[in-house]
């Protein structure tokens, strides 16, 4: 199963922190966000990530030569959904995808991989505890999920927070069969809506990944979920960055090696 990291965008809301480096280089404790991601994937037994880049991709290529790269050259004019599909050639044997601006643990990745479902979303059930500290990213912006048992019944930002079962953290598993369903759904909708409004997006190219998930659910495709109980943070704003540096390294009690996934020194990042 291939790990895929979606990291083409700049991350404007981190302001000057992304002027000269990718968003995923922002440091939480002694590691970059990207290296926290690699630790989570490595801990779950996943290696040789595919990185979908755009902004500052050459910098990442230089620092992480072990990655396989997909270049979203039009990243300024599209969004997470179209960005993910730049890696379609790496999806046939199944994959785990993750947003590049999140902190999560290997345990939730393992739960997703061990779940028998073809499509499995990772969901934080303690999500509202974290939003008490997010004045610049309110609950209305969360990619909220409702579920019956382990079946996801809807995923949408506009869900009432009181009705939500949790927040989708940006990590999902697709088996080969689930991957085929994702790819077929994307290209069918792209053919119909390319350059046109679709769901909440002004044009199809600006759609979020969860827009496709919701469309697939409405068309009878089963989405399962596994949970994490607060071991997740999104780094979207400077407020998020400051809070993560206060709580994430200590909470996770991880040994900071200061080394890359292949053993190389991280001091240059």
Question: How would you describe what is shown here?
Answer:
This protein has helices at 33-43, 57-63, 80-84, 106-114, 127-131, 176-193, 209-218, 238-252, and strands at residues 2-7, 27-28, 31-32, 50-53, 68-71, 95-99, 102-104, 119-124, 144-148, 151-156, 166-174, 224-228, 232-234. Helices cover 30% and strands 22% of the residues. Strand 9 and strand 10 form a beta hairpin. With 269 residues, the chain is α/β, with parallel strands linked by helices. It has a single domain, classed as Spore Coat Polysaccharide Biosynthesis Protein SpsA, Chain A (Alpha-Beta Complex), CATH 3.90.550.10.
How is the CATH topology named? Answer: Spore Coat Polysaccharide Biosynthesis Protein SpsA, Chain A
Broad CATH class: Alpha Beta
Instruction: Count up the domains.
Output: 1
CATH architecture annotation: Alpha-Beta Complex
Number of strands: 13
Number of continuous helical runs: 8
- Residue share in helix: 25-40%
Q: What proportion strand?
A: 15-25%
CATH superfamily: Spore Coat Polysaccharide Biosynthesis Protein SpsA, Chain A
Largest sheet: 9 strands, mixed
| Low-pLDDT runs | 254-269
Overall shape? globular
């Amino acid at each position: 199963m291939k790990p895929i990291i979606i990291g083409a965008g700049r991350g404007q809301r981190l302001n000057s922190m992304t002027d000269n480096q990718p968003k995923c280089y922002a440091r939480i404790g002694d590691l970059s966000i990207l290296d926290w991601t690699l630790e989570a994937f490595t801990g779950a037994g996943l290696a040789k990530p595919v990185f979908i880049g755009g902004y500052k991709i050459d910098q990442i290529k230089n620092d992480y030569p072990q990655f396989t790269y997909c270049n979203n050259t039009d990243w300024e004019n599209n969004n997470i959904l179209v960005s993910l599909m730049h890696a379609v050639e790496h999806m046939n044997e199944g994959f785990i995808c993750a947003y590049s601006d999140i902190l999560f643990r290997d345990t939730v990745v393992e739960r997703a991989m061990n779940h028998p479902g073809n499509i499995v979303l990772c969901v934080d059930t303690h999500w509202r505890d974290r939003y008490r500290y997010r004045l610049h990213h309110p609950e209305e912006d969360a990619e909220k999920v409702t579920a019956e048992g382990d079946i996801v019944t809807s995923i949408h930002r506009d869900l009432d927070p009181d009705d939500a079962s949790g927040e989708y953290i940006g990590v999902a598993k697709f088996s080969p069969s689930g991957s085929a369903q994702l790819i077929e759904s994307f290209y069918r909708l792209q053919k119909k809506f390319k350059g046109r409004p679709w769901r909440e997006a002004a044009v199809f190219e600006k759609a979020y990944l969860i827009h496709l998930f919701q469309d697939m659910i409405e068309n009878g495709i089963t989405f399962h979920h596994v949970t994490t109980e607060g071991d997740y943070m999104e780094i979207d704003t400077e407020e998020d960055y400051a809070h993560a540096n206060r709580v994430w390294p200590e909470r996770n009690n991880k040994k900071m090696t200061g080394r890359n996934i292949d053993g190389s020194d991280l001091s240059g990042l």
